[in-house]
């Protein structure tokens, strides 16, 4: 097939990386330094107690975590504000100078692993992606693989039937392949490796989908053009947008991802550049270096942090970088979609596996030859869960500090010199609290400002604003609940408990009251203890603790409400928590995931396929 050669990207990546990272490091240093210094000065009176010193140390770590997210989002906001139409190309230069008419220069395999998933939804997603790719006119460059690890024989039988139907409906002999392993050895990693061993040598690139992924043909085609343009590119990660949610929790999560996802990912891509990361799906990989360099080790020893690596993606990205391959994050969500957990308990179940996998990465962080940023990705992955432990410790220590007002708990370190001269320049505790809270919520506010440019796609300015406020409120209330769940997960890992690898729940389910109360007993107890301490020692601070205590006390009712489809669909019918993919559905998304989301289809219904065909 004839094609037009794409122009390779011309940019000094090393020099640009140094400049961008120097800016980020400067911003982080100034922010963390100012916050930590002010906190220390506020705690100094006649000296600094040992407890206060530990509190400052832990707070400094928390300030660093908050600051990196804050400044990454600020950078993303600035770029998207001033480069609205080409923000992704600004931060990821591999996307520049693409010829929209160029045909792929290599052969591409589109693979979708599945494990005991609902077969109707899996094949619906595969069919939509397949149809969209064929519609580009470059279908001869692609082959499609449904890689089943299903162990449930009834589901496997449905998969085989649907595979045959799909094969004959589009006359895909030689283009669509269904393969099922009877034993899912090494889980998803083993599934992909089996594909590579059997078919990998026949393809140049591999597009990896998840069982709930859908990608447009044009997006996949552009990713292949980026790979063709850049021979050193080993992996390009696209940004997935959430879609298809009906429950309140699912729609809140979906709205938040749609509103803030591209903002944060643009900032992340800005400073990572070719030291990007891999999220396991909705990405394209260069097969030869992937097969050569990405065999994962089996971690020695016993316990949850040994054995097979559960979160393979970060490690594979790190190994590709070690081998000299570029890894890019392309911060554009158009044409890239996934689904998210539909209630808070299923969200936590998924987090259990991710948490264990990310903590396993700590055993690889000192692996020889890894790039510094690859190690930072691993550390950030573990910190995304470890930060909950940090916040819990700060909450408990703040209660001890309040108690220390009337009863000394720890020895006091004398002042080295007179600090009173700095008092006029010190922010008050209230001011510090407001600054930190502002840093936490500012990315959402900035994302809202950018969204106003397409407010009609979100239901209009008023409904967009109400949706954003609603999401912020629920985010603030549910944050402490998720914090304690993460603390419980990490504590279980520390005492040697591992997680079960089960199929993910991707369809909406209601949380029974009994299950909700059982899972939220620890939250209620924590709220009672914290509330009692502050009521007795510092009642004036209860107002500032109100969001935390509210979320913990009402954790069970919130869990039940989060899992309700009728609440989510009621809001959707009234224009709240809408996303552009629902008001103006793209061609590659089935109507059941977009405009007609209020229509109820039972799982396994053959009407799903019929609806998609419309």
User: CATH superfamily membership of the domain at 105-235 and 271-333 and 345-371, which one?
Assistant: Spore Coat Polysaccharide Biosynthesis Protein SpsA, Chain A
Give the helix level as a range of percent: 55-70%
Counting DSSP H or I runs of 4 or more residues, the number of helices is 21
- Which topology of the domain at 105-235 and 271-333 and 345-371 does CATH recognise? Spore Coat Polysaccharide Biosynthesis Protein SpsA, Chain A
List the strand order in the largest sheet.
4-3-2-5-9-7-10
Radius of gyration: 25 Å
Could you tell me the mean pLDDT? 88
- Total strands: the figure is 12
Measured between the Cα atoms of the first and last residue, the distance is 32 Å
Structural class: alpha/beta
Q: Largest beta sheet, briefly?
A: 7 strands, mixed
CATH architecture of the domain at 105-235 and 271-333 and 345-371: Alpha-Beta Complex
Q: According to CATH, what is the class of the domain at 105-235 and 271-333 and 345-371?
A: Alpha Beta
Strand content: 5-15%
Regions with little confidence, pLDDT below 50 for 5+ residues: 1-6, 596-605
Shape: globular
